[in-house]
């Protein structure tokens, strides 16, 4: 094909122009978009299921001298005299998990000699000494049953085992995110998307059937590998199937599904046994096997791989479902260019070799471009900051007290206003300002929350004159409010960065590029659990660190090019030209 002819063909086959003809978000796209969003619900739930399946339930030592054998109560009024523990500033007692006070044998013996029994509702300090001892029977604060009870992992020496489940989960996310991105660029979005869904479901079922702690760890790792590919690939498929004006909608609404999927874990209150919960999250996604016949391959990926005829079939079907007409000349060009692409591929040694060459050639061009390398380095930093702050704020949400299932659901659902804020920012201010504004909002609220935390001890209760063990000071309410606003900001930033990154990547490496960024963010997330430990040196230090990182990331984002209402770059040259 001559250069003028190739240029003409490229112009004809610009998919953004085709979408204008067949509809940027018609019935065909809406149906398929809904289908790809449904597995995201279960991917989100699976990604956090270990919080409940491997969580540590509330428990204390069983005290046979005071507890009723058949109906032991965790929060009995006498617990503080029989079990050591700590009192909160609000007057709430938290008993130790694995220690109890030693029984005063002399007092018990004298009671027995006098013929009197030890009243279960009148346990007093005289019944126990100040010495403590380990216990091996426990009373639980709820019906929740996790792997702690399943395999006897109570007490301090086993906490690392529960934390290690999270480590294995993040390790699986790192491996899976990187692999799914590369494989999707090479073998197609649809096939790898379906593989990740089925793999997530099967390994989730295997996790529910685990026979010991080691098998649980292995299946948790494998489940994370599958789970990690579902959301990114659903995002890529969604972005690539719609027109320029609908891209931000496709990414933001997908995040709504993700937030609802996370919040669904709050319903584990009704499934207190960890095996039941894991099965409930893993079996339904198996229905998605039908997607092999229902969901089409990404047209952009097909065009980038010179599969013009297959792309033409999907475009004709989309035009028919959307009740749009498309020119005969345009459709005839697909077959002609497919034949020309096959001829050119055979001359170079085969189509598969050409496909691999395209990816590696694009990577070499990116590495050799100082503009793109600087741009992607900034993106890597912003992705890592997003992960550290997002997960760190969740871990630092100690001011939110009450029912843990309800709290968990609310903390997840508060992300929906954050995604809505991102949608508004994306449409009103463009990608760059939306990202910078979200990060700066998070920065301001985190720093403010840190200083309020520092001054919290000087505040008095908002409802003066009312004495309550659970009275909250005005500072508590202010900290919670600032925390929620900060969570909104970082949630908005996370939503924007996905769209922004995808729009800066050339088509041939878009999925892999987003996968690399997401993988790097997972390494940042691994640091998040350690940040709260900084509070032992200076109470507001974690929040001040989150605010500082968000500030730097917000300022660096202003150096990135604007991609709002721009054509998605198909080549590396087009990606470089975004900044011009």
From TrEMBL:
Keyword Acyltransferase applies: no
A GO molecular-function descriptor: transmembrane transporter activity
PROSITE patterns attached to this UniProt entry: MFS
Transmembrane segments: 33-52, 162-184, 191-210, 216-239, 251-271, 277-295, 373-393, 405-426, 438-457, 477-500, 512-535, 541-560
Membrane topology: Multi-pass membrane protein
InterPro entries referenced in this protein's UniProt entry, alphabetically: MFS_dom, MFS_sugar_transport-like, MFS_trans_sf
One GO CC term, this protein: membrane
UniProt KW NAD keyword: no
Domain spans labelled Major facilitator superfamily (MFS) profile: 99-565
Localization per Swiss-Prot or TrEMBL: Membrane
This protein's UniProt keywords: Membrane, Transmembrane, Transmembrane helix
Main location group: membrane
Protein name: Uncharacterized protein, isoform B
Upper lineage: Eukaryota, Metazoa, Ecdysozoa, Arthropoda, Hexapoda
Gene responsible for this protein: Dere\GG22513
